[in-house]
Predict the 3D structure of the following.
Amino acid sequence: MRKHLALTAALAAALSLSACAGNASTEPATGSTPTVNTGQAGQESHHADDGHDHGADEHYGVPEVTWDAAAEKSVKDTAAKVMGLFARPDVPETAWFADLAPHLAPEYAEDAKYIDPARVPSRKVTDGPAISRDAGNPLTVTATFSTDAGRWTMLLHRSGQQQPWLVTAISPQEPTS
């Protein structure tokens, strides 16, 4: 396992360095004379102050996401709406799922297709959502609700600051001893 991690780290470092080198080819073009970069004027070289990030901190496609009052309001609104749609055991299965589907992550939507709403014991949300999250993670939260059938937990995730909160799981909360 350590060899695999070391190989992966070495490969990542090599790729990072090759990205800094630009499009330099390792073989000379046909009919050309190979040159050596001596750092003379007029030749391209990369320095620490050239504006090109040479560190291992390069982030590719990582969204800039923060937790703020708007994010909290948005996730609470979404969680409350979805739990209200979920706790409807008298609604026909196709209508129940059609109402929920736009608010579900694709993976959970696939699972939720097989939930029989008649078997959902909750009919009414009595309190919540109470939101909790890891301090360093503005992308994923847990919403907890009290219902007429006990406490329920919902996991929600977003993929970016302006992306919608999508439900990744809904389940009854296990009673604590």
Observations:
- The CA atoms of residues 37 and 114 lie 64 Å apart.
- The beta strands are 125-132, 140-147, 150-157, 166-172.
